[in-house]
Amino acid sequence: MNLHKPTERVINILNIISKNPNKLTLSNISKQLNIPKSTLSPILKTLVELELLNFEMTNQTYNVGLGTFQIGQSYLNNINGLDIIKSHMRTIVNECNEICQLGINHRNEVLYITKIESQQPIKLLSSIGRNLPLYCTGLGRALLFEYSKEEIKKLYPNKLEKFTEYTIDNIDTIIDLIEKCKLQKYAFEKQEITSDTCCFAVPIIINNNIQAALGVSLPIVRATEKHLDKIISLLNLHSKLISKELEDLNIKSILS
């Protein structure tokens, strides 16, 4: 692929800042992207002027601006089928009073594209617009249902990152877990991405292809057997309803 280098540079700047809000200074960005400060500085100033970035004077760091949010929101508003899915997500949240999230497979990571909060908010590492690994997230494991054992091994040839002490970092163990999850028709992780929380998720299948994953996250202290049974039943029910509605409307992908 023959990319336009100046445009690619701007995109790389936005990507690295979006993943490290309020953490990166001019020097940090210059070092990580190997861009001279003299070249980088006017680009950052322009992005701030266009409100694609914010500059925090107190700590001299950058984060994404309102303009970036508006562009992203415009994209989400144009996704066919998303309103249908969000309607079902609201029903799930009303029934179980826990956070519900939707993610897609983006470059072999789970990209969280929308979330419905509950009346019992909790702090999660995942957030709208963030990418996290497939191997250690509930939504990611549901998305891996369509991968073969060999394909999963090829995805992770190197040592896996541990986010908490509970993160499973052995690829064979993960593959075995995913095979079991396929049989029970839902995926899960417990304290592997955020301490003291867990996530249960199911794939959304449209025309026999996994297009997204739907999940509920909750604190471990509320994860009683009865409550989890209800959550899993809700996820399975609404994933099937979503699939049927989208297929009936001839929506082949939530991103088209």
Task: Spell out the blueprint of helices and strands.
Blueprint: H1 5-19, H2 26-33, H3 37-49, E1 53-56, E2 61-64, H4 66-77, H5 82-96, E3 99-105, E4 109-116, E5 131-133, H6 138-143, H7 149-155, H8 171-184, E6 187-190, E7 197-206, E8 209-219, H9 225-248
Antiparallel strand pairs: 1-2, 3-4, 3-8, 4-5, 6-7, 7-8
Helix pairs in contact: 2-3, 5-9
Structural write-up:
With 256 residues, the chain is of the alpha+beta class. 45% of the residues lie in helices and 20% in strands. The protein has helices spanning 5-19, 26-33, 37-49, 66-77, 82-96, 138-143, 149-155, 171-184, 225-248; strands at residues 53-56, 61-64, 99-105, 109-116, 131-133, 187-190, 197-206, 209-219. The strands form two sheets. Strands 5-4-3-8-7-6 form a six-stranded antiparallel sheet. Strands 1-2 form a two-stranded antiparallel ribbon. α5 (82-96) runs antiparallel to α9. The radius of gyration is 20 Å and the shape is globular.
**What class do helices, strands and sheet pairing give?**
alpha+beta
| Radius of gyration of CA atoms, rounded to a whole number | 20 Å
Number of helices: 9
Strand content: 15-25%
Mean pLDDT: 90
Q: How far from one another are the termini?
A: 23 Å
Shape: globular
Helix content: 40-55%
SSE string: HHHEEHHEEEHHHEEEH
Q: How would a textbook summarize the main sheet? A: 6 strands, antiparallel
Unreliable stretches covering 5 or more consecutive residues: none
Strand order of the largest sheet: 5-4-3-8-7-6
Task: Provide a quick synopsis of the model.
By secondary structure, the chain is of the alpha+beta class. The protein is built from nine helices and eight strands. The strands form two sheets. The chain has a six-stranded antiparallel beta sheet.
